[in-house]
Amino acid sequence: MKSWMPFEWIAALRFLQEGRMQSLLIIVGVGVGVAVIVFMSALLSGLQANLVRRTLSSQAHIVLLPAEEVARPQVAGEGALNRVQKQAQRLRSIDQWQQLRARLEGWPEIAAVSPVASGPAFAVRGDASKAVTLLGIDPGRYNRVVDLAGRLAAGELRVGAGETVIGIELAKDLGAEVGDKLRLTGAEGQAETLTVTGLFDLGNKGVNARNVYVGLRTGQTLLDLVGGVSNIDLALHDLDEAEDVAQRIAAESGLIADSWIRTNAQFVTALTSQRVSSDVIRFFIALSVSFGIASVLVVSVVQRSKEIGILRAMGATQAQMRRIFLLQGGIVGFLGSLLGSALAWSFLMLWRMLARNPDGTPLFDIGVEPALVAIAAGGASVVGILAALLPARRAAGLDPVVAIRG
Amino acid sequence: MADPVLHLEGLRKRYGSADTEYEVLHGIDLRLERGEFAALIGPSGSGKSTLLNLIGLLDRPSAGRLVIDGAETATLDDTALTRLRGERIGFVFQHHHLIPAFTAEENVAMPLLIARGRPDAAMFERAGELLGRVGLADRRRQLANRLSGGQQQRVAIARALAMSPALVLADEPTGNLDTHSADEVFALLREVNRQLGTSFLIVTHDPRLAHRCDRIIELVDGRIVSDRANEVAAGRSPVQGSAEETE
């Protein structure tokens, strides 16, 4: 007997120890349940993080655009019916974007600010001509929003005067390689011949075929936006705050602020429903685990009714009896969660070994985080105690006379 | 004179509700002094066990007064009754009723552990001493269910004494034992009574046993029909003798 242990703990542990087979089976049962929950959670968060990362690899978290131009009728009076035609939106610069950039850089939520001059253009090489999206960037800033330098397939990220970086799909379509020249023509007819310095692969075929990166100044010239930028791309420290931050920027600056959450609404909905359905599954696993614990403890109360009676005769109060059984539930839950976490960890190792890309790299990165194990352990203990509520009440309510005669 | 260990006045116990109600005990008056060694006899169904359960505070009377060691019990709630039971009353049951998951020593220390909440060296010292008294000093560390029937009953007696109770209630303490073990266990109860002055109320079917007690109380159909001193047993008047001893 450990001298620091209160009576209730001693009795709870001894009872579990004595009912060896029963205790073992229910702990394994809890363990399997916890293992599935932990494994599912780790897999899901790994999968989702991976999906989000891939989706955002070629996107800014928030894109700021100039407010739409609105047509206002000159004459508005009684009796006059006006039909206001919606105005076509021309490519415009964001007003005073340098000041805005400086201001946004001061926001603690914002990790990077990258002004971009972007618009439609044609890329021509020989007989081939492709419609592309021209992006005039400051590579140092842009890299912190979209990791272009890290996604180069060939060459280097250099967009000085007369230089451009294009996607691998466009390069294939135009038959261009690093060092080749191509001609870019803007919508207003400005044209420039540029040397391809690098090829990128952002993991998205459309982006690889469409985006053409040039220096900010070259972009401004080709798009007829001298001194201006068409949008400002932002990266945040916390992805989930994007919508919130976007709304605050929109309110403050009067610009349109599109967060990735809004621009990928369907994708985000898919992620959310995936999470909800896994929550439902996890809830029902926890429920069935708790019923398992409860049923084992109910049987144990019946089996031990004589001992409960004796303990009561020797001065154990109802509250003490209740605690003994609540503790057994908690201990079973806790031990089960440790077993379950170990099981989940082995499942994940197995998964890592088996689920691989054709090139042998892991499909995506997952692992059991210590926080998840701690939550599982705490959660399973609480579930165990809750499951023990009913059996504990029965144990406490047992009439000692009946129990002893038992 | 000191308070009696047990004082019953008009104690009644009824079971069932309104129409089907029946009374098992019809007004029991009884006084048990300190150091008394009394037998409670009677045919089965006479209410002996019911009376013992009431005195042991395991059940509540329907009417009447029940005073244990000077404490009125009518107004106490379940927790207070449990505490009083743990401190003042020791139980020895027919089927020894040890807790199999614990050793002999731990079983004996159990009432102390329950009362104090945490184990300490003193309670195991006390358990060892009591086990020595019942002749089981060498079995301290053995699990309760590894002991023979007679040994288990002796452990149960040691356990009943752990809290130094004023009164030990024994329900057929030798009913489950062979003659030899029964004699040993009875002798042990007697010895504890003489040496520690603990009062005993022993329910028994065995007339041989009853006649070795100082006082014989006979219960028939829920009434005490005879209550006499048994001069033969100890060669002294137990009621007066014990009263003097405690003063």
Q: Short summary of the structure?
A:
The complex is a heterodimer of chains A (406) and B (247). Chain A has 406 residues and is an alpha+beta fold.
Give an overview of the whole structure.
Chain A has 406 residues and is an alpha+beta fold. Chain A has 2 domains: 186 residues, no CATH class; 165 residues, no CATH class. Chain A is built from 15 helices and 10 strands. In chain A, strands 2-3-8-5-7-6 form a 6-stranded mixed barrel. Chain A starts with 6 loop residues before the first helix and ends with a helix. Chain B has a single domain, classed as P-loop containing nucleotide triphosphate hydrolases (Rossmann fold). Chain B is 38% helix and 25% strand. Chain B is built from 9 helices and 10 strands. In chain B, the strands form 2 sheets. In chain B, strands 6-7-8-3-9-10 form a 6-stranded mixed β-sheet. Chain B has a 4-stranded antiparallel β-sheet with strand order 2-1-4-5, covered by helices on one side. In chain B, helix 6 links the parallel strand 7 and strand 8. The longest helix of chain B is centred in the C-terminal third of the chain and has 18 residues. The N and C termini of chain B lie close together (8 Å). The C terminus of chain B is likely disordered. Classes of the chains: A alpha+beta (406), B alpha/beta (247). At the A-B interface, helix 1, helix 11, helix 12 and helix 15 of A face helix 2 and helix 3 of B. Chain A: This is Lipoprotein release ABC transporter permease. Chain A: One of its GO terms (cellular component) is plasma membrane protein complex. Chain A: Belongs to the ABC-4 integral membrane protein family. LolC/E subfamily.
Topology summary:
The complex is a heterodimer of chains A (406) and B (247).
Chain A: H1 7-18, H2 20-55, E1 62-65, H3 97-105, E2 110-125, E3 128-137, H4 139-142, E4 152-155, E5 163-167, H5 168-174, E6 181-186, E7 191-200, H6 205-210, E8 211-215, H7 216-222, E9 231-236, H8 242-253, E10 256-259, H9 260-263, H10 265-303, H11 305-313, H12 318-354, H13 370-387, H14 389-397, H15 400-405
Parallel strand pairs in A: 3-8, 5-7
Antiparallel strand pairs in A: 1-9, 1-10, 2-3, 2-6, 2-9, 4-7, 5-8, 6-7
Chain B: E1 6-15, E2 22-32, E3 37-41, H1 48-55, E4 63-68, E5 71-72, H2 78-88, E6 89-92, H3 104-116, H4 121-133, H5 149-161, E7 167-171, H6 179-196, E8 199-203, H7 207-210, E9 215-220, E10 223-229, H8 231-234, H9 238-246
Parallel strand pairs in B: 3-8, 3-9, 6-7, 7-8
Antiparallel strand pairs in B: 1-2, 1-4, 4-5, 9-10
